[in-house]
Amino acid sequence: MTDVPADPTSTGTGAGAPTLDPLLLEIVVCPACRADLDLRRPEPARVELACRGCGLVYPVVDGIPVLLVDEARRP
Ligand SMILES: [Zn+2]
């Protein structure tokens, strides 16, 4: 019988650098023009979503995209 030691690193979710669930990224679209959004990382500790259509940039707060035209930056 083989001993299988618990590996504490295998369950780490990497709470640190912000990111976005890839599945979430696939389903969200720009609320202004319905185009796909690209994930951007302008700073190591910050991510945002840029629209491929109209170019608006939406902030991501705590991993949650804020898809509000009022909160987006104009290109
Ligand atoms: Zn757009």
Concise account of the structure shown:
With 75 residues, the protein is mainly β. The protein has one helix at residues 22-27; strands spanning 37-43, 46-51, 57-61, 64-65. The radius of gyration is 17 Å and the shape is elongated.
Q: Can you offer a commentary on this structure?
A:
With 75 residues, this protein is mostly beta strands. It has one domain (19-71): N-terminal domain of TfIIb (Single Sheet), CATH 2.20.25. Helix content is 8%, strand content 27%. It has a four-stranded antiparallel β-sheet, with no helix packed on it. The chain starts with 21 loop residues before the first helix and ends in a 10-residue tail after the last strand. Residues 30, 32-33, 35, 51, 53-54, 56 line the site of zinc ion.
